[in-house]
Structures are given as structure tokens and as C-alpha cells.
Amino acid sequence: MTNRPTSGFKGRNLTIGGIFPMSGSWAGGQGCLPAVQMALEDVNKRTDLLTDYMLHMDYNDSQVCARWFLLCHATNL
Question: How many domains does the chain have?
Fold first, then answer.
């Protein structure tokens, strides 16, 4: 049995990664990123989930290019 903090202190960091289309011809990540950040905040506030961990996220811009995507996938059809 492990000791779990009861005061809400989370001593270990757990980092997840994300790639979001923040720029380019379809910048849909601008709507997705805030939702993911809000979810991380919600999980971090809870004392009954991942009690020893504080979630963090590192993310990058995929710089989506719809034309490139279509060209790549058209050759695979």
C-alpha cells in the first residue's frame, strides 16, 4: 500500500505531448488546444484522480497544409 497525499499536493509531474494544427490552411487546433488545457486543469484539481501526479502538456504546431495532405493521400488511393 502506498501513501497518497490527502492535502491535494501532487509531487510527480506527468507530461503528455500534443500536436495541434495552430497555423496553416486549417488552424483547427486553435479550438482544440483550449479544451485540452481545460481538461488538464480539471484533472489536476481533482483529488481522486492521479493523486500523486500533476499533468502538464508540451505541444507543437503541426502547421497543417491541406494541399500537401491532399497530394500525399491522393497518391495512396
Answer: 1
